[in-house]
Amino acid sequence: MEETPLPSFDLSRNWNRVRDETLAAINVVLEGQHFILGAEVEALEKDLAAYLGVTFTVGCASGTDALLLALMALDLGPGDEVITTPFSFFATASCITRLGATPVFADVNPESFNIDPQEVLRKITPRTRAVIPVHLFGQMARVEEFASQLVEQGISIVEDCAQAIGATRIVKGKIQRAGGMGELGCFSFFPTKNLGCFGDGGMISISSERLSKRLRSLRAHGSGEQYFHDEIGLNSRLDELQAAILRVRFRHLESWNEERRLVAERYRILFAEHDLGEWVTPPLEEKGNRHIYHQYVLRCRSRDLLKEHLAGRGITTRVYYPLSLHLQPCFSYLGYARSDMPVSESLTEEVLALPIFPELEPGEQERVVQAISDFYRGR
Length: 379
Known about the structure:
The chain is of the alpha/beta class. The chain has 12 helices and 13 strands.
């Protein structure tokens, strides 16, 4: 009998929970007929600045643009180096090259998958201008382990928070949110994110008034006063409809993140009950972290065969990421070779993201883990 399809993420279930609220918010914008950088964007920026514990946030058109604008605001260019992880989405590195700067890759921790602080410190040269740590899959990197050394050397920290809005880390007894530890923090509101809109959208968190003003100009073609341009910027403005949608969804972010954490805990229990430790390593939540599980990513044996087996059972899984950034053909000019980033390279062969979203039901999780157990035990 054919299995009912189980997607990796089901947007329709989430939509049904906030349909009336969202339609009402959209209608307010439609009635007002103001669609770009208006009251909804301003309110969202203020709400998120307060939530993140920063002074300002600046909305923009996408998470990729958030990264690019952040680096533009730091005046990066040819001859500058930016240290980042090879185990991330492409935009983390492509935004560096767009400005003519050079990405320098530092390998990752095998348990958290986040950038290894010691590798960051090892890769610093006189040309290093910034470091982009990625809070991957919803768990914060250990930024505090290299932050002070970078500040002393005038090196900026630009947090890639695309997958981590709401994630926290306890540092010296204080709760720090993703986006509040560096000079700038970059967020994505892609529809499948924990806080997602109905298209593209992004935001930058900052505590510097100077950088905030600069970013507001850069996102609007480098203009302060309309039609007068101090520099060349981008057309990267967050629109009112997306901001209105995000303001509705932001009211539910904390509860949805907690539901994701419950889903992750159920997976952990089910893997233990099925005694799958010989084949599968569930994600580790590092001490002091509040992981908000944008993705639930395993390390597993025979990954590709397992993925194929689960697909045959109607279960959609995904591989984040199948090829490290340092080995992507477009970055071949950087001169990296296989074995240069051994941890990242091993992860690309072993990781598998299971279905996870707030509305995932216990019975569906049991079905996923049972199918995994059947694969490894030959049933």
